[in-house]
Write a structure and sequence with these properties.
Two copies of one chain form a homodimer. The first copy, chain A, is mostly helical and 106 residues long. The first copy, chain A, is built from five helices and two strands, in the order ααααββα. The structure holds a DNA duplex (30 and 30 nucleotides).
DNA sequence: AATTTGTGAAACCGAAAGGTTGCACATATA
DNA sequence: TATATGTGCAACCTTTCGGTTTCACAAATT
């Protein structure tokens, strides 16, 4: 099944995983200690995150360190871009209103 | 069921709805014409978007215009903020590397 | 007043999500 | 070599998701 990044970040556990490995790479076991679910459940989330390239693996002996692929998050930023333009222009309009009110006060 | 904004934007149809009403408010019927699903399915999506306050209704006779609550999208932006800091600092590091290489070239 | 139009809600359905348990297998360690 | 440890994968289960169909009802139109 094809998963996209929006679906990936929809799950709160996955967002928490992202937050954790943003600080430093971690193994599935180490990650699982932070949640009230099984190690396998975390593994599944990591699989999904890997599938849409939000996460990279680095094998070290028998341990696998998962690392955040921060660049991928820029895709969300890019999607937001079109709306940021809108809310900033709305802000500009508010600015105009405010400055007009100031002038009138004078 | 409590829905959050991340779940709301996870569905591609809902993202398309958001994109449409970002341009101008629309009725469910008008929206549905843009998709290959029933009007009721769109209505369900609108319900979800309304629940997490991404969308506002404005009744006009028997028609209901749905309007994007653009402010709500800032929540995503806010979530991204912490990671933006990271990827920008990584970019800075890349900058340093590049300038070091330049110096060495000299 | 009768009919058409725009809408939301409920019941139902198949597929997907997220969890668990059990297993296989490679790598450390005794 | 035997055992412990770290991991992924598959089977299974329950809940949720996204869709459809059917209905109710208010507002517009005839």
């Amino acid at each position: 099944m094809r998963r996209d990044i929006f679906q990936a970040i929809a799950d709160p556990t996955r967002r928490a995983i992202i937050a954790l490995i943003a600080v430093q790479s971690m193994t599935p076991n180490a990650l699982a200690e932070n949640f009230h679910t099984s190690r396998q459940a975390i593994s599944k989330h990591l699989r999904i995150l890997t599938e849409c390239e939000l996460v990279k693996q680095e094998q070290q002996g028998r341990e696998i360190y998962y690392q955040l692929e921060i660049k991928k998050l820029k895709e969300i930023d890019k999607w937001l871009e079109q709306y940021r333009r809108i809310w900033e222009s709305q802000f500009d309009q508010l600015d105009k209103v405010l400055s007009t009110m100031k002038k009138q006060k004078k």
